[in-house]
Amino acid sequence: MAGKVSSMEKSSSVTTATNKVPRAHNKTPGFFSWVLPALKTPRILKTWIRCCVALAAALILMVCHRTLDNMGQAGFFAAIIAVMLPPSIALSLYLLAAITLLLGMCMGWAWGVAAMAAGLSVRSQTLLAQQQHRAQTSLVDGIPQALQFQKFVFEGYFLDPRSSAVFGAFFFIGTFAFGVLRAYIPKFALVSIFGSIVLDIMCSYGPLFPTSEYTLAKIFIIPTSYYVVIAIASLVLIFPVSLNNVWITSLQNDFLQSLLKILDYQTKALESTPSDRATWTQFTNLSQAMRQKLLASAQGLLGQIGVVDLEISVGRLGPQDLKRISQELKSIVFRASALYSFLEFVNRSNTGHVAENETEPIAEDKAGYWDRYTILQKEIWQHEIKHGHDFDSLVPILAESSSDLRTACHAAISGLIDWFNGCNSGRWTGFFSKYNKVKGDQRHAALVQRLAEVQRELEQYREVHRIRVFQPFEKFFDPITGQRLKSSDGSDTTEMFAARSLYICLVFSFSLDAFAERIAKFMSIIVDLDGKRSKPRIWAPSGFGKLGRKIMSRRDVDRQVVPLAIGTSHDPTSFGNQREDTNDEDDDQVQVIPDYRCTRRNPDALPPTSAFGRFSLILGKMFKFFKSPEGIFGLRHAVVSIALWIPSVCPTTAWFYYGNRGVWGLIMAQAGLAVYAGDQIAGYVIRVAGTIAGALIGMAAWYIGSGHGPGNPYGIVVATTVCSAPFFLGRIAAPHQQLALWIMTGVTIVFVVGYSWIDKHVPVLTSAGVGVAIGWKRALLVIIGFTAGFIVMLFPRPTSSRTLVRRTLAATADELGLILAVEVEALLAEEARAREGHYEKVPFVGANSGQKVSPKEQRVRRIGQKALDVATRLQALAPSLQTAKFEPQLSGIWPHAKYAALLDKQTKILSALMLFIGAFTQLDTRWCSILVHQTPFLNPNLMSDIFSNISILSYALMGARPLPPGLPRLRDRIVYHERMNPVSGSRRPSYAGLNRPDLDDVADKIDGSSLGFVEMSLDVLKDGELPAHATALVALSSIITLVDEMTAIIRDLCGEMTFQGFVEFQRDFLGKEEKAIGGGYSRLGLS
User: What is the pTM of this model?
Assistant: First the structure.
């Protein structure tokens, strides 16, 4: 009765808390939420000023007659490049970006020259003579003949169908190549975009000339060269910053600050009551968002570290020092993710309790399956409340016992932030001034002291504070012997605790221990560097030998360097051909552990055995490429280019095309294309909005700067710079999803003002207008280009972003199953060592230590890399979830919420896998053997069920096929294997105090499964390996639960095959099974 009353009280408190859920944490960040933080960041303000100065300098070149005469009619193009590629990044990165931009222009120019040479070679001399005679007879007296002949050229007087056909063939091949390059290698987006622009000029105007005009491309290349010099000068002279400085700033402000916030949220959650579900959910969501930011920051830092040694820098830390620091980032991310996992486990448990409290216990789910797990959880929860070891009782003990260690970690991270801030401050003053040894010793002593505090508190936590969480359980054991209490008849007492809440609390103990240990190691590296790098010095570049390799690497593109990149570095729907990215320094390490992925075979063809067969295989791959999204994008890029190029070489439309600047419609059609339909449509919406806003603001800037006259140079420069400045800030500081809007707005402002100035100050054959006239024409050209791109997108069929989302999630599900298989294989390898008599704990030596790396560490490293690859893939999929909503819903409403939930489930599975491998690193071979033999999670039959379910789910989602009938619930399979197969085999080794042949007699379980101990005692609870063991069990249990939840989502998405009578037969069979077991689910979780 007391248990029921307690349960009702808990239900009341939880329900009350649920009704008071605050809505603040559910709000998505506002569209302009980035503005205030950006204005408060000195580095962003300095970068903003530098970019505005560079734009003003480009505009000054445009309004200066001398430089404008040199740049020509496209003198405003320098200002357009200033908006598209502002000097907002480090000098070394900007040089790489500028080189790729100019390389693309040169490639387009070279291919255009080849097209012109080939076109001139096929011209009919007879037709040319007739055309020249016609032009001579059309001359008008009183007008310069050169000007008249120039007009004749653009009116199409000298067009030759043969030459135009050759130009068209070259143009199609060139635009196809640039399109494939843009989609297949996103790092070369600048090469593709600007190469296509130059090629457009060469092939649109080249056929009009009867003679060789190989320098047509200079109309864009000269302004671009002017601006590149301006940008480099601004990076050197205006608030100069090195990549070394940028890297440390990002580490300090993004990575370490995120760590601090995760610790803060952890502390606030521990200070709250877990039954207050609203508050706990709030801190869980905040911690999850901060974990994603931490992961994104780590990915950015690891992506930049490869080029940090390509520059000359001044500072205390050199490139090798930063690389040494970067090697710790992955481990810290994994440990911080484990801290978040504790909040997530408690939150999921709270959510389940509320659901169970609001309704009667469910015996069957909607598919007709018996839900043993739900009944079991209800019984365990009630038993925990009865004996006072639920979360509300245990979490306050965790908070108090871990307070000192968390405070020490917080102080250590704060000290690291201060130290890195000191490294970034006073680089030049410190270089020229005399070293202050007293301050240096004080700084070093402070670091040593904080390191000692972390180590001391960690040791104290392991020896004293960690075991305080077992205080509520001491009543179940004899205070003298530590053994389980006996009843009056001498048997074990039937009042035994349920271990689920305890084990989840042990997840926190393990995670905090591992996190503090990693922070201590990181601190020790910093202490060592501080002792060696006491004074700033000049660091020379050392990485040019690997420059080509770094440029061609398959790492994800930096969107700040290449903002217009589309596509991904790898096929997002497959992991089969992805090479694991490693640092350059890791390449020399010997990998003795083979890859785990089996080779996919073609069931319709055997491997080739002859040279002709191998050639046919290569030819088949080439044809297959044209069916891939990248190949189709290249064809669309070429087709839309040809479609909008044809009017430029038709005699009746050539003059209209030239006079209305039709080439800009062609450029916009190319720039607006995307690999996937959702991305393209979303891009159109953003770009059209940017074009309209930019046209209106550009017209205002023109009339403000010019009034009713031809334009005042001072007013034009000031007005355009001021009007563009807010959009520069967005270009620098806004999220990536908004970059296209701010870039398009700024480009349109400069376009309207620039063309208006050119029209008034440069002699032109035909006027495009100024202000309003050029503004609406620009908007119309954008709409024409986007319309052409949209039409091409529909054929042969749109490459759906929805299909991308579905197939990517199918691929990641399969990869998650592979990671689990690799982790199980690693665990079995350690269990095999235990059977051979090796009971030691394998030490991890770390990267580049010079010591021999154990097979266990090699496996963990590979698993960590695979997990990071999947995390990157899942994080990159989030934007596609949003853009997919823009696709026309001709087949019905797209279930966005289902796919978002599926993405969330897979992210949580990945977190559990990372938690499991983290626990595995801390287990010795003895405990690995216990985990394998004395818990049902590693039961071969259960593992077969898990791998089969994951494979079936991936297959169904990849091919949009229904699930087979009666797919088993893994949570119920745990109970089944626990109760129906109690003996795991003769391989079970014997360890004193930790072995018992009959698992059915084990009293304490988690989720209905044995914990691995026979004689539960205080000594076992206080064992230092128990937190890692508990973490592994909770992680495996969470994986199984999440796979079941993923199954329910995919069943709703893809459907389920069924046949008449099967559901009824299964219900009857399971009912008989329940009777055979006895139906006593309470004793599965209790004694």
Answer: 0.82
